[in-house]
Amino acid sequence: MSTITSSTGKAESVTVRRTEWSDAEEINHLISPASVAVFGRLNVINLLEKANLAVTLSSSKNEVLAHASFSDHPIEELVDQACWQNRLQNYASAEKLTPMNTLFLRLFVAQPGFSIGGAKEIFRTVFSAVVELEHICLLTPYGGALEAALQKIFEPMTSVTDEAQYSAYVCHRHDHCPRLHIRKARVEDHDDLMHIFGEQITPLVETYGPFVLSELIETQEQEHHTAVCESDGAVVGFISVSAHVDLKLLNKCFELGAFEGLTKTDPSQQEEPHQLEEENPADDAQQSDETNEPVEGEQTAEEETAGGDQYTDISQTEYTEPCIKETVDCCEDSEPDGPSNAFCIQLFTMEKKFEMRSADFLPYLFKLFPERDFCVISVPKQAADFPLLQSFIRVAPRDTSTFPQELYLCHRWGLTRRLEVRVAVSSDIPAVQSLTESLSQRDSIIEDLDLFLQARKNSDGTALQAFVAHVDGRVVGLIITRDEEDIEFIRANFDIERFMYFSHNQREEHGRLCHFLLSPVFQHYTKYIFREVLRLAHKSCLYYLLPPPHDCYKNVSAHSLTAVLNFMVPVSPRRQIIYPLEELGINAPSQHITKLQTVPLFGLSELCELVLGFPRAESPCSDSCLCGAEDSKTVS
To answer: What angle do CA 458, 461, 465 make, to 5 degrees?
Structure first.
């Protein structure tokens, strides 16, 4: 909770939270003629249903003071949602705007006295919470002048031609929530750090003495580093990393076969990945501070996540090879083959106010170990997740493991901001074949891809769509969907109205996920990839059908299940009516409703960046799930 001051001088304690359906009426009352002149006439319920991110500034009495809705594309009257980048080419610096780093403001309203303060607080919070976000755009064809609050937030975009028939504005992260400054820790930081750690440091102090942090900082050398992050010159976080990792123990306890056991492979095999990395991976996730040049190991970092506690760690690695591998069982007694390719986080803390931005540390850390590709951290199993882990991948433990902690890893390629999603083309076939060469569902995947490329539909005539995720032209993932034809069955058997308004979603906006393949190092971008698929496919909801253990659907990849379920929300099955079909005769319900189909349902509706810092939607406990627009955007 923070405090803002109204134009009349009144101080108000406020909270920025996800918008709830119950806010719609108050938001409607805040829409003024000036708002209509900029954003047009809007149906608030429809806006909340389709928005990628909807946030509300509320008072201590839960009164709506301001509201903003964001989408991953401009309004439909201006441009097809799948082609907005081409539309913006008429403006200077538009090449910096990408689907990953840009959102569009679709509505902003506020009580008159809190318009300016509310806008600043909402935009600061959104930039803080959405890791990849760098720009927010406002495009309007209506010709209305921006109100004072938005004039202070946005700057006009300069048109390079005379063809523009609409007004374009943009605001940037560095004006509202700049990346934290990362530098090498110094002994004089000790008192500030002890205050941040608080009681968390007590066990270490009792074991190693009151100056454990000072000694840790003083003993820095080539394989052990400590760093702090600063905001406006004040220390707000600390991290300690080491190159010493017990690879034998990790390989014994965790399934690291797909990550080459966290060791370096043949240098000739790694030449290409490292060459690409030098051109960007960690660098492009970093913005240099124009007024504060990094020196002697200091530098500004970029990325956004958080953490707020002290954690001891162990490490893990992975090779940036484009092939997705099934779980590989190796002998528990086998020694890791090759030099270590990982470093580990030993100690980490973040001031709570800044914990959403703790991933700003990561680019700096990879700079410290340029020859290693993995950063690993181990976390107590009972510990609550913290935002820093949003940039990490959980490693599955072995069945025989007794290791008391969970293991997470981050690959340096996982920091890239150049991951893009596009429609699959014929030239992608060799890359997809390489990507799936060790998967048991390979034939089914290639068959469906061929059907899409040849006819855009499967054997029963249902429309197919296929997309690839790629980094600098290198394919790292494949997603295949089809139109959902069993909507009546889904509505009759699953309580999906809890997550969406059917009246605001057209029939053609429903789709089913057939295959989802993604290189492990990019799995933390699954949510972004889904968002892009929904935008490019013009869908508002995707469903995933999970077959029962005794059944097998050829269009369901085993790898898909593992990758996507963490980003989907369970949908409760409805209690079913047992219809006396023979007695009802021609009056019986449609077979779409009465047919036996015991497949749990999983689904996905428009996902947003705002997963950190806002309350999650309730997830019904059941064998089925749907990631609805409300779960990821508006319902809490």
So the answer is: 50
